[in-house]
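#dry-run=false #mode=assembly
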Amino acid sequence: MSALATEPSAFVYHAWLASAALPPGTVNGLLKEYGTPENVWNAVISGPSIIDGIPAAGLKTLKQNMTDEWLESVERLLFQHQIGAFTITDQDYPSMLLQMEEPPAILFYQGNLHCMRQKNLAMVGSRAASYDGQKAAGKIARNLSRKGIGIISGMAGGIDTASHTGCIEGGSQTIAVTGCGLDIVYPSANLRLRDRILENRGLLLSEYAPGEKPVGWHFPFRNRIITGLSQALIVIEAKIRSGTMTSVQHALNQGKDVFVYPGDPTSPYFEGNHRLLREGAVYFTTAEDILEDLGWLDNPGIIGQNSGCSGRTQTFTPEEEAVFSALKPGRLGFEQIADRSGLSPAALMSTLTMLQIKGMIEALPGKQYQLKDSDSQHYSDPEE
Amino acid sequence: MDMIMAKTLTFGVSGVNGYPVHVEVFGINGIPGLEIIGLPDASVRESRDRVNAAIINSGKQMPARRITINLAPADMKKEGPSFDLPIAVGVLIANREIITDPAIETEKIAMFGELSLDGRVQPIAGALPMVISAKENGIRDVILPDKNAREAACIEGMNILPVSHLSQVIAFLEGSGTIEKQKQISFDSLKNEIFASPDMAQIKGQGGAKRALEVAAAGGHNMIMIGVPGSGKTMLARCLPGILPPLSFEEALETTRIHSISGKLPPNSGLMVLRPFCAPHHNASVASLIGGGQDAKPGEVSLAHNGVLFLDEIPEFTRNALEALRQPLEDGIVNVARVKKQAQYQSSFMLVAAMNPCPCGFYGSSRKVCRCTPQEIRRYLDRISGPLLDRIDLQIEVDAVPVQEINSSAPAEPSAAVAKRVSMARMIQQERYRGTGKHCNAQLNNEEVKQYCMPDAEGIRLLNAAMETMNLSMRGYQRILKVARTIADLDHTDLIGSAHIAEAIQYRELDQKYWR
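#status=ok
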């Protein structure tokens, strides 16, 4: 990529042009006319007081920012955070983005730009996600990643975090598209995740200039880039009215497949999922389902070597058998297990620990338990 | 009529201890009035008006002289209205309104009580430490307000004379009347009286939480409960005093003393038999928890001495308040130092904390959606610091289970049955730690854990496997061993087996789920 070789200071004009928050279409027009952000700068500095296509307010901001102090402060941010940038007129601008409505005119990045060339899938869901949703997101991302497929998400909490983490654990590179300047980590709790993404040669993208705050409307708008960069969208967990639904809308407008994880139909966390499934979204439960539907199932060697749960061959005490069969229909609370297995609380406590150590069951928040592979996963993770 | 010098004996309270105070009364010619010296506080100084009215309403005369009353020792600060009665008696004797029966040595009778204007004797705070101090000072006869009589009635070898009106005291001293002696109440007979704590049998379901309570009670372990609102955390905690072993006489004295000086004993109550249950609201200040104020009064941690301190919604307490709990939790004693006063109070209590899993309360609930962001949940949990969490051995989750989902109709076990097992386990521990100064498993330090809490080979294998597969922290390791010791004690076995370890691990689960 041509932009890669240049010094950070080359990107101050990119930052300047992005700083007025002009609509992407306007900036596209300017870049088509003038070529580079630097040329736009020169045009504004020497040219007439009105430039075609730039609204007056935007032009005012641009002019205000044409000071040495401003340029220096931005240069410092670019340098400090190793932020680069490219525009729609650059040769290596991803062609996938060109196919969408309102393609971003300028993109800032940190990390490895080559990530955009691998097969990528977007994975999205609630920030305040259920335990199940995060678990599923992590697992599916991990298994896709093992097959060399990258995961794109928004580096928010909940499902986004689980998706990025899963992808990193699976060995592929993950892309995060953020809703603020790349010098800011939002939410700040994800500082560690940001570092992990970069350490694992992943990529951070943003159409906002360094220093730009995370403002509410940025997020649904950046969702179009998440879906735009990926071959298909995977929805893990969505409430009826949520940002995830705007991602779905973007994906549909861009002609991408939408895969929806079924989730528990009785849980309010998954209401949106079931609405989408009723409306004809693609149903899937495992990474393999997605690969099959996308026709990417060419390398079946990696997933599914470890079939079935190894714990099955272990011997059970009568108490463990009782708990195991009580849990077969699905997850239960402690009291219900005690009721169904007929064990005393003390005996049940120790039996649950035994089964947990053997890897047969897992504990969920709210004193609930479930069989480890009852989550409709057909294979188990070697590491879990 | 001439005035003479008169002396009466009473007691004051400093910290949890009483000390003798001699009330000296002397009148001289001058403008009629009553002056109290010997560092009286406002409530003592106001005594002169109450005494004045009470004497007249008992049918006697106030002397038309300038009377000086000295409360000796003069260097101790005197507080409270309990000096009314000895002052009134002193004034009457000095004025020769009372000609005392020669058989009665007034200076050898301790007396205290607040007077109302009509001469009635009102109950006071701190009666128990005063009576104990009287006994220590070789005094046998104590005249006190009748509503404080039961409180003092447990002290052996005392002649407790309860009165309800000043005129009774006058008649007694003149030899024209008698005061009916308070019968001694044995500590054991108090125990058989009403059992106020709620009974475990009233709680349907919650077998897991009840078992955890039993373990906590058996080993004296501190405990934290996490659960959605309405899961019954408070109700469970309230059951705890009822399953703890009954207070011993010494413990009852210690606890009652603290309640007595705080004025927290209800009128007519005897020694406290039931372990105290203190549940301060979460806006409690450091001073109200630990003790403080001008007079260095005992706080909730001391009122909960030998009992249970229940902190509901523990993350809502201020950070300072929670951190201040660490010393009393560690030492069982608090030092309260104030400008005017210093005091040391015992504060050996079981801490039971309860909290929601997140600010909205529904994280992990299967029935309602949690509206909190992960950062909000993190911040909420972080309000409980590691060092405080370190002092809590049992962490359990309490889930609200609709009653209709529990099919079994077996009646729940009453507290009495649980209490029996707990007492047995405590006896085993007392036997084991005889001579070490410890009396329950919760008090063991790391060295002693190695000495007393080592499981068998199978248990160690299990624990090591759990450390690996379940992400348990090293700090959890020691706690698990301690709690496993208690579970084995409940089983009456000396050897800690794998089943005990396995059960103990369940009580550390929150480490993995919440404080990862």
